[in-house]
Amino acid sequence: MAITDNFVTSLLPLIEKLSAEADFSKLLFEKTFLPTEFNKANTVVTGVKNGNVVPIITDEVDYESFPFVDANSCDTTECNLNTNYSGKKWELGLIECRIPICLRSFNDDFLIFWNDYKMINPTTEVTKKYLNTALIQFLTNKVKNNLNGAKWRVAYFGDKASTSDYFNGFNGFFIQAEANTSLVVPIAKNTAGTYSAQQMTGQEVYDTLVEMEEVRLEKDWSATGNEVIKMPEKMARKFASYLNSLKDKDCCDGMERINPENIQTKSYTKDNMAFHGVPIMPVREWDEIINKTSELNGGGGNNPRVQPNRILWSPKEILLVGTQQREDLDMFEIWYDRTDRKVYIEAGSYLGASISLNEYVYAA
């Protein structure tokens, strides 16, 4: 039943009926997974413009500099400072939503749930005002969480060839990584016909890392020493479980536990693994996006996903997210319109993703 009066007024007579009439399931605030703050987990470059060259200069040593010269001559030998600029350019896309909220539209069940969750007894004008403010803050946070998830979606899974407006603004990290086939290690199980058949074993994850390392060692990366191996959290959990199940703990050459002295058990976890000194970073957001977007989940159930197994090995600083904004990646506004009595929340981000140098290995 829709509320035709102010939602606080409608809430008051329902409080005493909480235990008797409310469906208990509606009183539970479901704490689902919230994406890691995108701006903190990724390298963000502000103040860029669409079409600008990605600002990467590598500080490589030129071993053909400073030649011998005639010590008796006043002529000066000129040398070039050869620098390796990124030839890639920023391609930005705008993601944006406006959400109208009519406070009269919340039904009784939701309002009972909200009152119980906030543990507020709205008996005074001050508390009533707070309940109104708290509800708007709740919805505001939901919008911000959705925007945060959208940034993960487009930065990594963006695909200009897609027909979906949720993906087709620009090519994200994965599509860019696929472009250089010499840096790609194929994962056979991604082509399986069912989701269950697509699941990799821990041994297969390890074997894939070994293949990736072989490709890595053939390349001369300039940005060494700050490398990271990113993979879906589900893969990382399975891999850790596999390592812990082995009787021969020395089976997998190169596997290490990060800071083993700081953990009570000496077992592997998704968060403490390193391969030849390179930390493995589980990315839960990849699992979420693959399984919860119609573009990638194949309809759900046991239907095959679009490349559910992915590993990206690179220096941290070459995966860049650019925005035209000067101070923040996001745009956010909230206002009340008296003409239609609605609260509006408008949020968005004008961003792009760039693998600035071909110093990575991608398995998919």
Question: What topology emerges from the helices and strands here?
Answer:
Elements: H1 7-11, H2 18-21, H3 38-41, E1 43-45, E2 57-58, E3 84-85, E4 93-101, H4 108-118, H5 125-157, H6 173-178, E5 184-185, H7 195-198, H8 202-218, E6 227-232, H9 233-245, E7 255-257, E8 273-275, E9 278-283, H10 284-292, E10 311-315, E11 319-323, E12 331-337, E13 342-355, E14 361-363
Parallel strand pairs: 1-11, 5-14, 6-9
Antiparallel strand pairs: 2-3, 4-13, 6-10, 7-8, 8-9, 10-14, 11-13, 12-13
Helix pairs in contact: 8-9
Please describe what this structure looks like.
This is Major capsid protein. The longest helix is centred in the middle third of the chain and has 33 residues, at 125-157. 29% of the residues lie in helices and 19% in strands. The chain has ten helices and 14 strands. A seven-stranded mixed sheet has the order 5-14-10-6-9-8-7. The two termini are 49 Å apart. By secondary structure, it is α+β, with helices and mostly antiparallel strands. Mean pLDDT is 81; it is low at 1-31. The chain has one domain (7-42, 89-363).
